[in-house]
Amino acid sequence: MDAPSGINADTGEGYNPCVRPDFTVTLGIPKKGLSRENSGKLFLADTGIPIYAVEENNVDAPDFKSRSLINISNQP
Fold first, then answer.
1. Minimal CA–CA distance to 44: which of 63, 20, 19?
2. Of 26, 32, 21, whose CA–CA distance to 3 is shortest?
3. What is the pTM of this model?
4. Residue 61: what pLDDT?
C-alpha cells in the first residue's frame, strides 16, 4: 500500500530486495517514482485532502469528485 517495499517513491529506484507487485494502491497524491514497471497497475485512493490544499500547494492530483479510487496506470 502506498509504495511497494524497496521502491523509492520519489525516484523509482529499486533497492535489493524489492517487491514487484501486480498492483499498487497509493494514497492521496501520485508519487513521482511509481511506474507501471516498478509498481504494477497503479490506483490512487482518496484520503480526503481538500482540493483547495492541493491547488494551493501546486500539487498535480486529480479531483476525486464522487470516486474514492482512480486508476492512474496510464498517466505519465
1. 63
2. 26
3. 0.82
4. 80
